[in-house]
Amino acid sequence: PVLRTSETQEARLKLPILAEEQVIMEAVKENSVVVLCGETGSGKTTQVPQFLYEAGYCSDGGIIGITEPRRVAAVTMSQRVAKEMNLSHGVVSYQIRYEGNITDETKIKFMTDGVLLKEIQKDFLLLKYKVVIIDEAHERSVYTDILIGLLSRIVPLRKKKGQPLKMIVMSATLRVEDFTQNKRLFPVPPPVVKVEARQFPVTVHFNKRTPLDDYAGECFRKVCKIHHMLPTGGILVFLTGQAEVHSLCRRLRKAFPYHHKHKSEEKEDSTDDMKKFKNSKARKATVLPRINLDNYSVMPVDEGDEDRDAGIGDGEEAFASDDDDLNLGDGVLEEGEMSDSSLPLFVLPLYSLLAPDKQAKVFRPPPNGTRLCVVATNVAETSLTIPGIKYVVDCGKVKKRFYDKVTGVSSFKVTWTSQASANQRAGRAGRTEPGHCYRLYSSAVFSDFETFSPPEITRRPVEDLVLQMKALNIEKVINFPFPTPPTPDALIAAEELLISLGALQEPPKSGRLKELERAKLSCPISSLGRTMALFPVSPRFAKMLALSGQQGCLPYIITIVSAMTVRELFEEFDRPAVSEEEKMKLKGKKARVAQMQRIWAGQGSSQKLGDLMVLLGAVGACEYAGFTYKFCEDNGLRYKAMVEIRRLRGQLTTTVNLLCSDVDISADSKMVPPTESQVTFLRQIVMAGLGDHIAKRIQPEELLDEKWRNAYKTPLLDDPVFIHPNSVLFRQLPDFVVYQEIIETSKMYMKGVSAVEPEWIP
Ligand code: ADP
Ligand code: MG
């Protein structure tokens, strides 16, 4: 029996889903697969696991698993459910890519979707689970989609075995046809249970005019007006990325200054990493973390990490919208924005990379006599419900990474969101009482929004997924029951890349083109491919790892691959400064970092490893300096990124030691710099992984068009690509280079560049 506090009991009774407990449990009892739709905040995530627990689904040792596309949700929700049920974290636990608190006693397990996918590789039938809940299915994250496809096969197999598995798909929207009407997925459509939400009316106000690009400034003005003129009630602002969120928080705190307590609130933000660092130092700095491989996601792409991903473009684009800060230097506010200090504003940021204890703050009532104002990214759209929100301010935008499916070139763009997500955002205002949503764009613009955002799987390259599926012996990936399949082009591109990396067996050369195409789509995995699939990094990097057993190069490649996977080691200094003083500071830092990078790039032929040598040098130097926060701060390294690189190095080291009995890489995190001959070998290994990412410099005598000056030509693109001024190879412009990726900002820039010798090119 679950012993809940009366307080919890009272709060639960207010949730619409409680009225449906019977209906839901009936449906689950009668069917192996059930789809459950209910508005955000109706209680799906927190209550359904409890219903199942109380109905005895864990009584004979089974586990209830719940997958979330975002790390934030997995952690917060497990804590919430443990608290509501009065059970310890050892019983209601979570597992995300690098951490978790799972025990042998765990009965309810929240995890990211990538973690469950990894478990399927080890135990295809997921025998320890009695129920698997796929939460937030409407988000259509790639792993969620694939899990639904896999589970549609696992459920009947479990039934045949006489150990039935229940599957529940939960969605915040009613748009579930991709799951229910897809005959390949579920020949018999699963029943859909709807939870009637007790939603209060939300009045939507459109702007008459749509601001051209200063939507962050428009948000600021709108919050000021609401706070100034409208009755009490929390405000929730939707912006597109972490940098914007922080900038608006700073601005609002300045406009509605807070005393004593709230000062410390702000301070905490900047000292937080420091504190964390101090704790981590106590954990012995020179040994790589030992990793329990059972607790790991093997999936290469960062789970639910949209914010960091979205943060990457911030330096070049998003900061433009933060310009307003410049006008605020002396605290002058426009008319009508005067701060009403009689009612302070309690401003909190919310985004997925925020430390969990800070995320939890948004659920607590704001201090007496203040108004809550949460400035959030998409996280607040459906994953987390913040109590007491009466006003929503929606900029209408979302930041996404866009890929060119053929060339793989990616760029971050801030675009209009979909009508569906704008409506979700508006709905946040009507949870506890009637509310208002202020859309900072016109109704005409809204009617031009696409109705729904397309599923993620149709928008990105899929080589990592294809490799994982082949490792599960799904040879004809094209026949896999995807809720929405990737395009055939994307699948072919993925298989071609995997064939060229040697991860798949070559298709027979004979036959007509059509047959060849078809053959290409059903190549079995090679033994190299099986090894590659075990590394939690993208197939190109996995190939590098698989090759680097010689000449003592493994520790270096592990480090390079970790740094390339984590990305964005260096802080961004090319942003507009708030004051003259800050401008000087940024300039000084940038110069220092550039100098350090030149040192880390090494001397003589070592320099030819280019940006990757810098990564190696930076990680090496940081370890030698005792892995201190100060070292990172002084040298323009992002401490958080360095910590993550360390964890990934630990994981890769463990994996390699486990896979190859003949090597034994030391877990010592310190490395001596590679010798010149090792550097040459490293360059060759890097080229083996990035073989199709070759670029050739346009020679002066070939220059027909000015736009090609100092440019490079690649096999895939018609347009010139460039070495970024921040690259250590920018001044050298080697004749041939390989690159990690091309990101389009003001130009097409290659990232992670290193030089190759012409004679290596086949
Ligand atoms: P759904 O999954 O249907 O969107 P949830 O189960 O997440 O709904 O939320 C149900 C209710 O529980 C919401 O009103 C939400 O505010 C509340 N809630 C969720 N997590 C917490 C928490 N950590 N602290 C306080 N309230 C919470
Ligand atoms: Mg939920």
UniProtKB/TrEMBL annotation:
Gene Ontology MF annotations: ATP binding; helicase activity; hydrolase activity; RNA binding
GO cellular component, one term: nucleolus
GO biological process: maturation of SSU-rRNA from tricistronic rRNA transcript (SSU-rRNA, 5.8S rRNA, LSU-rRNA)
NADP is among the record's keywords: no
Highest taxon of source: Eukaryota
Domain Helicase ATP-binding span(s) in chain numbering: 25-192
Sequence segments annotated as region (Disordered): 260-281
Key word Nucleotide-binding present: yes
All copies of domain Helicase C-terminal, residue ranges: 211-473
Annotated keywords: ATP-binding, Helicase, Hydrolase, Nucleotide-binding
Name of the protein in its database record: Probable ATP-dependent RNA helicase DHX37
Gene of this entry: DHX37
Interval of the full protein contained in this chain: 235 to 996 of 1147
